[in-house]
């Protein structure tokens, strides 16, 4: 797999790449922030993804779905907490995904997930080695709560 070699000098650069790559639906740019050995716990579809090939297939499906629907997806990171040392970083935050119709710009829907990223410095660049997204669950209904913010 020929991924774009990005140079994320700061942890915040990884988050900015995430936002812009999702908005542009650019699979290669999006994946450039991830380790080939990425392990993801996702709240959508399956329990987890192991390895960049598995993650790439899911990201392609996600971005292709957005294209087919004719929407742009705006990503905002809120309540970001970064803890880092020389070689490891830990980020937790709330991530809001807002879908907008391409032609009118009208907001169609929005959800906010909780995210945790584990990053490692590799050749002076930060890469995501673990990602965990989650949604709170209603104790009464057992259903996910998509937008408590």
Overall domain count? 1
The number of helical segments is 3
* Range of strand content: 35-45%
Provide the structure class.
alpha+beta
Shape field: globular
CATH architecture: Roll
Order of helices and strands: HHEEHEEEE
Quickly name the level 1 CATH class: Alpha Beta
State the separation between the terminal residues, measured CA to CA.
38 Å
Alpha carbon gyration radius: 15 Å
Could you give the order of strands across the largest sheet? 2-1-6-5-4-3
Q: Biggest β-sheet, characterized?
A: 6 strands, mixed
Helix content percent band? 10-25%
Protein name: DUF4440 domain-containing protein
Domain SnoaL-like: 11-137
InterPro entries: NTF2-like_dom_sf, SnoaL-like
Pfam family, one: SnoaL_3
Fold and architecture overview:
It holds the Pfam family SnoaL_3. InterPro entries: NTF2-like_dom_sf (IPR032710), SnoaL-like (IPR037401). This protein has a single domain, classed as Nuclear Transport Factor 2, Chain: A, CATH 3.10.450.50. Helix content is 25%, strand content 44%. A six-stranded mixed β-sheet has the order 2-1-6-5-4-3, covered by helices on one side. The model has no long low-confidence stretch (mean pLDDT 91).
Provide key terms for this protein.
25% helix, 6 strands, globular, 149 residues, Nuclear Transport Factor 2, Chain: A, alpha+beta, 3 helices, six-stranded mixed β-sheet
């Amino acid at each position: 797999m020929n991924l774009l070699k990005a140079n994320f000098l700061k942890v915040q650069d990884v988050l900015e790449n995430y936002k812009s790559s999702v908005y542009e639906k650019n699979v290669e740019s999006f994946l450039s922030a991830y380790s080939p050995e990425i392990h993801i716990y996702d709240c959508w579809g399956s329990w987890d993804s192991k390895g960049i090939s598995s993650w790439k297939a899911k990201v392609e499906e996600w971005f292709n779905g957005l294209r087919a629907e004719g929407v742009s997806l705006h990503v905002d990171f809120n309540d970001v907490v970064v803890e880092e040392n020389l070689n490891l970083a830990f980020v937790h935050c709330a991530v809001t995904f807002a879908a907008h119709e391409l032609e009118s710009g009208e907001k169609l829907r929005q959800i906010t997930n909780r995210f945790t990223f584990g990053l490692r410095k590799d050749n002076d660049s930060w890469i995501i080695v673990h990602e965990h997204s989650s949604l709170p669950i209603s104790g009464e209904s057992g259903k996910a709560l998509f937008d408590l913010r």
